[in-house]
Amino acid sequence: MTTILPAGLRVAVRVPASSANLGPGFDCLGLALGIYDDVTVTTVDEPGVRLTVTGEGADSVPLDETHLVAQAITRGLAHAGAAAAGLQIDCVNAIPHSRGVGSSASAAVSGLVAASGLLGAAAEIIGTQALSDDELVQLSAEFEGHPDNAAASVLGGAVVTWTDGEGEGARYSARRLQVDPRIRATAFIAHAESSTSQTRRLLPDEVPRCDAVFNLSRTAVAVLALTREPDLLLAATEDRLHQGYRADSMAPSAELVAQLRAAGYAATISGAGPTVLVLHTADIPASAVDAPSFTMVETAISDGPTVVDAR
Question: Where's the GHMP kinase C-terminal domain (predicted)?
């Protein structure tokens, strides 16, 4: 039996961008970044979904129930046995699309956190309950097919993630790492776009054992570097599993990573690219970087999503 939420509930949420992999942790390490999408959702009596979008992607995303935020709200409510007769959804987007900073994951998390807020707002009226962090990780990762970006946007900070099973029955899990307060992040946002599905096709099905062992060791070191030994960041962000195979498809990004690492900065491709992420404890002078195809953005490491208003 489906519980219909009353009209007039309103929730406003703010959800961060994310960077996945952080070098060696392919599909298992992620970091929440202080770039945010804002979503406001109101339940209404009129059936259907009405949606507005301003900012990033405003001219390219659908404005109906097929929008990822709308799909995620519907999925989150259904998970709790609830639904809304109609929804008014207003999105203000700052997270760049198709640049490797988790815009799709953030959209899914925005919808699910909004659904959770609506369920919480209706608790005293019809007895619904907000979704747990574990549920938010699972449901948002189902949209992505892997949990690294989604879990970072749900939990904030840095995350380690893992998957049990495959396909529709996969179970996604994550835990937050407490990032050493000395660590800061700088994103070089690429002006060009990239498709995650296309860049994944460039990766081989098999890799040499020595490369697999190399990445296993560097992923372990990354946990140490992120949590208490940032002096290890340069070594902790080395990779042999994915960045080299994708380098030709995003040459400016690969060149920028090489330039920054040669100067001693822990630079990696952010997710599937083409944005470049640097983790550091000392300032990066703009004059020290030649990156005409990128916009340099110094960003905080985010604590995760915020329910700005729920009533």
Answer: 239-283
